[in-house]
Write a structure and sequence with these properties.
The complex is a heterodimer of chains A (355) and B (340). With 355 residues, chain A is mostly helical. Chain A is built from 14 helices and no strands. In chain A, 70% of the residues lie in helices and 0% in strands. In chain A, α12 crosses α13. The longest helix of chain A is centred in the N-terminal third of the chain and has 35 residues. The radius of gyration of chain A is 20 Å and the shape is globular. Chain B contains eleven helices and 18 strands. In chain B, strands 7-8-9-4-10-11 form a six-stranded mixed beta sheet, with helices on both faces. Chain B is elongated, with a radius of gyration of 25 Å. Chain B has two domains: 241 residues, Rossmann fold (3-Layer(aba) Sandwich), CATH 3.40.50; 73 residues, Double Stranded RNA Binding Domain, CATH 3.30.160. With 340 residues, chain B is an alpha/beta fold. The longest helix of chain B has 18 residues. Classes of the chains: A mainly alpha (355), B alpha/beta (340). At the A-B interface, α9 and α10 of A face α2, β7 and α3 of B.
Amino acid sequence: MNLASINKPGVNRTGVFILLGLLLLAVVALNLTLGSVRIPLKDILRVLFGQGGVKDSWVFIIQDYRLPKIVTAILAGMALGASGLQMQTMFRNPLADPFILGINSGASLGVAIAIMGAGLAGGLFIPALNLAGDLGLVAAASLGAGAVMGLILLVGRRVNNPTTLLILGLMFGHATSALVSLLIYFSAPEKVKAYSIWSFGAFNGVTWDQLQVLLPVILFALGILAFLPKGLNALLLGEDYAKTMGLNVSRLRLLVLISASILSGAITAFCGPIGFIGVAVPHIARNLLKTSNHKLLIPAVILIGAIVAVMADLVAQMPGSQFVLPINVVTSLFGAPFVLWIVLKRKRGATTFNV
Amino acid sequence: MRTPLLSTQNLEIGYINGKPARKVVGSELNLELYQGEFVCLVGPNGAGKSTLLKTLTGLLPLLGGEVFLGGKRLAQFTRKELANEISVVLTSPIEVGAMTVNELVAMGRFPFTGLFDRMSQRDWEVVQQSLEMVGMTGFEERMVHKLSDGERQKVMIARALAQEPRILVLDEPTAYLDLPGRVSIMNLLHELARYHDKTVLTSTHDLDLAMRSADRFWLMSPVGKVVSGAPEDLVLSREFQRVFTRDRISFDLMNGNFKVADSSEGQVCLQGDGEARVWTERALQRIGYSVSFTNEACIGLRVAVKPVESGFVWTVVEGEAVNEFFDIESLLTHLRRLTI
């Protein structure tokens, strides 16, 4: 719990963090260089440091395409990893994450209402021309995410069984998807198309202007998280223990609800639903650091989330080809087997967050 | 007159959100808990022991009456204030994932470490002392999930001690432990009260152990009434037997344990002394004999045990037939054959 306990025999945690930092730099550099157009590293560096002498089209590709895309991916990974960790601890469920519990669907519903909803019509989203539109979208998605999460919390209060909770999330996901389908059914084709493009999920549609909205929103929600490690650690013992230790459990829940909803809602609003990063990243963090102490896990999931998202984007670019895969396709292809592995690895009597 | 640390006045306990909307589990509870005593809450399953403990620790609302902690009403305490009064150890095994013993016990300092959980020198000292009190010094860097159940429960007690409460409340802390583990935990609780002046309230099903180590019993009956008193007083006044006696299960006033009343095989006279007599008696009772030690009543079956060089010898006299055995197993085999 103090700095002295960061390093344990057998796990050099300082080393792990340094390695993760270097890895992040490496995947970012790789992501900058690879793409359908090949640009030498030397020229990329010139662009980054504002030196001239590089082809205008390359400057454009790097400044206005690859860089915002990478920043978006980093933010998305950080946000999804962090919200996954909070939710896994709060629900005491190693499989909880925004995607699996249907909270993304809530965000999608929010977006669907914003894009296709009758009253709000008029192209709030695509093309998202103004700050108000972007903020509105973030708000709609966060509210949708928060609503579903609140519902799950409410209904799931008495559910101790991890599987029941997952089924609950699944059902909420289905219900919200049905509502989205209903909206699609009654909407004009161009709005439906706008919505379905959004729903594929991508890091590359986000502009610098939109990042000016996304960045502070994500930093705000991560800022909330900075106050939560103590409470989340106490919650590891279970709600009753936490209460008798003096923790205000309802307030912690509310803060987690706000933070996780904004994190997953904002990312869903700008990048579409992205699965499995939220569930996988906290597990990677626990396994690397061999701890369930949130003081270490929170910075770790933020770093690892960024790395995983940038790597997923790298794969989505399919270097050497002209195609770009939807990001959710990549995360699902790699993430689904990972989740299966977690489920099968869980032994009877193993702890909830076993490593 | 001592003033109690904790007292209840006509306390009514139960659940509010169930069906029916208000389920009363116990009522008219007037109990007192004093500094430095070890109290065991005992009673049959479903009597409402957990409900009572949860109510006293503020985890369940009280349905009626009052609980006083140091003269102040329980309802007037905030969670934070209450954390300085009472700390708990609960029944179910914890699932905290990868965490060291030190980290877990340090959680007991939760009420003292501020928003960012800064552990001071004194906080670490308290952690160390708590581990010492439960005899787990040297386990600081071990992972909690790799400890044995008994060790883990001791660490949980250390965590509760590190919270520096006035009262330690435990809900069946021995439920998941093997027999040596149970003995060790009950003994530990006894010592905490006796030598460290801690006030300990625990519920338990280990009546035998509880009777040997508790200063007082809170004896809870199936109808949700609680009688309090020294274990021995409750036995002598027959309160204890009243609560626990079931069909065919009775409390042996002489031995202080429960036994199955079964005398389907009739009577047997037992002669002998010391440990051999005690264990022979148990063996005979197990296979359905009622045992008497008076010589006059001896018509029929007689068993005598006496020590010999190589151990013991058992002599069975039945009318004209006399048989000798050198262990209880063959004695029982013989007796079983007799009854067929």
